Amino acid sequence: MNAKRLSGRLAAVAAYVDEGASLADIGSDHAYLPCHLALSGKILKGIAGEVAAGPYESAVQTIHEAGLGEKVQARLADGLAAIRPEDRIDTVSIAGMGGPLIASILENGKERLEGVSRLILQPNINARSIREWGMANGWVLAAEEILKEDGKIYEVLVLERGEAVYGEKELLFGPFLMTGQNEAFREKWERERKSWQAILRQMEQSSRDEEISDRKEGLRQAIHLVTEVLGDGTNEGK
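Above: the chain sequence. Below: its structure as tokens.
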């Protein structure tokens, strides 16, 4: 992967960036995403934010080698602190982190999102945390995508300004993903269900402790939701 050729998951993120956007890519690593979009002429400007010195220096090098110094800028900053008012950023992307970490970055830097109209987020795990944050903070899901690359499954969530109330299934599975149910979606949730079933069996065999009864009930409910959404009639306890 480089600035000219993105990985599948980053290409999916790039597809949701509007023409003429001003993008801040937080946790940009090598700055491949903003540089790719700048090289293709899709964005007006890009900020590559990094909290660690090593990845920041890699981003600086990528920008220099691509000759994009006037269009893309690397910044060493914590989360959304990489965004300045004069940047007039309208799109923020955060990819390659856990959902809870992405949600915490958004929460801790909410004041930096004042002019932002679109968030493009690619959590590696627990996308639910992002859906919950969006619902609580005036952001609605505009699109979702799920894909498999190199044996791993990734979700892409696109949020825009607005109000929405999501139910338990929508928070867990994603309203768009649950409706579409492509192969990656079904593989992910079949895998999750099997994992939860194994944990539940182990808990039931090893302990009768009442302190874990809530955990067991939570697992049963989660397994039931997956079975209901996948609609395959699988025996939930097996």
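The beta strands are 21-26, 43-50, 72-76, 91-97, 118-123, 139-149, 152-161.
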